[in-house]
Amino acid sequence: MKNVIIYSTPTCHFCHMAKDFFKEKNVSYTEYDVASDLEKRKEMVEKTGQMGVPVIFIGDEQIVGFDKSKISSLLGIA
Predict the structure, then answer these.
(1) Which terminal residue of the chain, N or C, has fewer Cβ atoms less than 10 Å from its own Cβ?
(2) Could you report the per-residue pLDDT of 32-65, keeping only the tens digit for each?
């Protein structure tokens, strides 16, 4: 399984949808709350140029937002 990282905030609806999807598909992930972790927020912006969440990394691939089909494709799940 590829390494999955999600940068999120507690109030982000699409972040919750992404994490629920990962749990439903038994995908383990590392989560960074960029609302409270300023270092991870800076890291996210430097990597992506984005302030919007969720930002999801699957291996070296980056997804901004909750794109279920792209996430499924990158993880090789249905």
Answers:
(1) C
(2) 999 999 999 999 999 999 899 999 999 999 999 9
d(CA 9, CA 41): 10
Residue of 61, 12, 33 lying closest to 75 (CA atoms): 61
What residues make up the domain containing 22? 4-75
pTM recorded for the entire structure: 0.94
pLDDT digits (tens, 9 = 90+) for 9-34: 999 999 999 999 999 999 999 999 99
Alpha-carbon span 45 to 25, nearest angstrom: 28
Q: How far is CA 43 from CA 11, 24, 32, 33, 55, in A?
A: 20, 28, 10, 12, 11
Contact 14, 54 (CB under 8 A): yes
